[in-house]
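thread: overnight batch results

M.L. [08:02]
morning all. the overnight job finished for the chain we discussed friday. pasting input first so we're all looking at the same thing
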Amino acid sequence: MRVIKGKAKGRRLKASKGLDIRPTSDKVKESVFNIIGDKIDGAVFLDLCAGTGNVGIEAASRGSKEIAFVESSQKAVKLIKENLLLCHLGEYSNVIFSDAVKFLKTTEGKFDIIFFDPPYRSGLLQDALAVFEKKEMLNPDGILIVEHLSRTILSEKIGGLILLKKYKYGDTTLSLYCMRH
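M.L. [08:03]
and the structure it wrote out:
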């Protein structure tokens, strides 16, 4: 697990020894940032179910101005903070110890990019999508990227969001949503 591009390019991140975390692979992560493209510059980025912080750290390295990492494991929160220090990217970041659904229900924040990678078999995906159904959390040109098992079929519409495109990588699919205009 490494930072692919930007200020911290090439830095190896600490792994999640003893934690039940499935980090986003470098191949899928690189695809995420190819999809995002220039939208990352100056973006307000939410890494929901952040795990090791792998994706949010890549966002910081590539030029996001503000990154919120939300993670429900205290050990993972500690690991994210260690990885941010390792990459010298802590000043751009807010690491939040919270359940993802609780965070979504209570935050007043709006984001340019939300990356949501819940544990695949946790039931968290549907619970969080129900919150997205009721609450606008994206800025007008914002995007929601959901990483999920390829066999999991997501709705074409989630509240004010519409499915723009799906990208499949073996057992993993990225579903990209944007605001309806």
